[in-house]
Amino acid sequence: KMPLIDDELDELKRCCENQIPDSKVVAAVPAMVRVEITKTTFKKIVCCLMFPNDYPNKHILIELKSKTLSDKLLSGLTKVCEDEAKKYLGRPQILKVLKLVAKFIEDNPLCSCSEEISTLRSMLGSEDTLKLSQKTSTINLTITKNKYLLKTKITIPENYPHDRVEIKTSDCNFPRVFKVWFIENSKELARRCVEAPKKPKPNAPKFEVKPSLLPAVRFLIENVQRYPEEKCQICKQILFPEDPEKVIHNEKAAAHVERVYCGHAYHHDCLILYMKTPPFQNGKNCPACGNRIYHEKWKVTPELAEARWATEQAKLRELGDVVEFIRDCTL
Question: Tens of pLDDT along 99-116?
Fold first, then answer.
């Protein structure tokens, strides 16, 4: 048996790195074979192979290791490799197994985010869909809530997670401002995972790249599922109509939905009335969470808001005086 093993080890040393792209033979001795297959710094698998006593009549013993790929994925791949080795009982098996591992990494670019994908699946509702395309390294996601939906195509780059995911919308029946907010914020979350802040906070830890798929897509799922049932914080009515066809896109309409910085939402006119009504001291706070209300449309200081309110009240009093004067004249 030893001559057979020695011959297989010699063949491995001669052929492995030529026949299997991105492979490196670290050790090839009767006690153990160790080969590293590195597609990217994140897609790297260390293959540890040992000869059982009755080799090659029994399959080679296989252990796959990775600092980045999930244990669940490695466990499944190990089982597939064992089944492959069993096809060649009585013959050399090592190169067959290594070629299978290399082909798996090549044909399954989404393996670099398999754990994140599993987490995202657990967050989806019964009507949501998540479809993978290993061929194009993309994820097609449809999030649905009460007839409202967002369809996105997420591309996982070759050098993930060092490069961020790319997110594009294919369909959305929310108002335009919400559609833009969904996508642009998810893109921003992805960017922050891979790009260090230009002005880091004092004593902040050294920036490290993080996977961007989960935080970016989790944001989409949570908010698409949230807003169709969100209530106006002033009138307490559901903000969006039951039928998405009746959603209001006119940003100046009374019932147009306005989302403020803290994430809570209001009807357009409800928010205007609230912002223009005292008290104004220290600005206006969100009734739901108590945070200061920030919105692009209302960049007004408390002092200016109070002055405007006082002016309006003065005009109302003047109008009231005129009405009273006319009433007195007609009596």
Answer: 999 999 999 999 999 999
> CA dist 271 to 200, 216, 232, 235, 294, Å?
35, 29, 9, 10, 11
Cβ proximity of 291 and 262 under 8 Å:
yes
Give the other-Cβ count within 10 Å of 213's Cβ. 25
Q: What are phi and psi of 85, to 5 degrees?
A: -65, -35
Count of other CB atoms within 10 angstroms of residue 301: 10
List pLDDT tens digits, range 255-286: 999 998 889 999 999 998 888 888 766 778 89
CA distance 154 to 166: 6
C-beta separation of 13 from 22 below 8 A:
no
Q: Residue 82 contacts by C-beta under 8 Å, 6 or more apart in sequence? A: 59, 62
The DSSP secondary structure of 210-238, one letter per residue, reads: ---HHHHHHHHHHHHHHGGG-B-TTT--B
